[in-house]
Amino acid sequence: MGRDVRIRDSGKFRGRRKLTKKGHFELRRLLFNAAMQGIRNALWEPYYLALRARGMSTTAAFVALACKLARTCFALLQNETEFNPDFRPRACALT
User: Fold this and answer.
1) Distant-in-sequence, close-in-space partners of 27: CB < 8 Å, separation ≥ 6
2) pLDDT averaged over consecutive 10-residue blocks of the chain (95 residues)?
3) Model confidence, pTM
C-alpha cells in the first residue's frame, strides 16, 4: 500500500528514512483522508497526539495513523468480526 519505510543504511552510516509511494495511489489517499478524520474521534485522537509528542511531523503522524487503521481493518476482515472500541487484548496465559 505504500505505507512502508525505505531505509538507506550502510555500515555505520544511518541514512534518511522515507515513506515509499508504491501501491495503489487511491488507496493511499483514502487511508490518509481517513486518518485526518480519525483524529476527530476520541478513540484515535490520543494515538495521534502521542505520535506528535514523540516528535513526529503532522504528515508522518497521519501516515502512522493510516497504517494503524489499515491493520485494524485487515484484522476485522480476517477474523470476520465487528469493531469493538472497548476491546483490550489480554496477554497470553501460557507466557
Assistant:
1) 1
2) 65 73 84 93 93 90 90 91 81 63
3) 0.75
